[in-house]
Amino acid sequence: MPPDAASRRTTIVRGGGDPRAVAAAWHDPAPADPTRTGVVLAHGAGSDLDAPVLVAAATGLASHGHPVVRVNLGYRQRRSSGPPPRAEASIDDLRATWEAVVEAEPDRPWVLGGASYGGRVASLVAAAGIDVAGVLCWSYPLHPPGRPDRLRVAHLSDVVVPMLVVQGTDDPFGGFDDLRPHLARAGAPARVVGVAGADHGLHVPRTRAVDGRTHRVEEVVADVVPTVAGWLDGLGSRARRALGDHDG
Question: Greater confidence, 15 or 44?
Answer without folding.
Answer: 44
